[in-house]
Amino acid sequence: MAISCDSFNEDTNQVIGRHQKNKNHIEQLFKIRDWCHKYNVLFKINTVVNTYNHDEDMTEEINNLNPIRWKVFQCLLLEGENAGPEALRNASRFYISEDVFNTFLERHNNVPSLIPESNAKMQNSYLILDEYMRFLDCRSGSKIPSKSILDVGVDNALKFSGFDECMFKKRGGIYKWSKEADKLSW
Question: Is 39 domain-assigned?
Fold first, then answer.
């Protein structure tokens, strides 16, 4: 189970939109972790490093939570998705440079579960499907849809997806993500 946690500071969570009235995001995170342990579910945390949390030291909390993976992403801007005039929500105010991202990573380099994903690693190493079952090619910095897999099949649509299988493997895209995976030798 992957849970998003971009800050362990409630004020920061409020600024970035992770705050819910009458609910403490951090307390909920620990409850979910406990449930995952109780029911033998692998527990993963995703963090997007951005303008508001890049100075935070999350080492102690992440080590206490002890996720199987802590995926740390650099805020990625995609034209039409979260940037530009056609975006429903503009994330430009969250964007940080690669140097700022690397400083965050250096601060957390002793966290055993840390899996960093810069924009360069992320941009073409994920397969993204939209609501019309089209792969979205993000190589140009904007989303260019393939034909629908419902119309042309997965193999044909994949040819226009921009998916970089080598980068997928290089960023650690193949990993133990289920109890069943214990039987596999990745």
Answer: yes
Q: Which of 102, 100, 71, 103 is nearest to 5 (CA)?
A: 71
Q: Which CATH number fits the domain that encloses residue 43? A: 3.30.750
Neighbouring residues of 125: CB distance < 8 A, sequence distance ≥ 6 = 163, 164, 167, 168, 170, 171, 173
CA separation for the pair 58, 71 (Å, rounded): 13
According to the 3-state scheme, what is the secondary structure of 24-48? CHHHHHHHHHHHHHHCCCCCEEEEE
Residue 84 DSSP one-character state = S
Residue 39 · residue 85 · CB < 8 Å? no
d(CA 92, CA 12): 17
> What is the tens place of the pLDDT at every residue in 83-132?
555 545 656 678 889 999 999 999 999 999 999 987 667 667 777 777 88
Residue 159, in any domain of the structure: no
Domain count, the chain: 1
**Does residue 65 lie in a domain region?**
yes
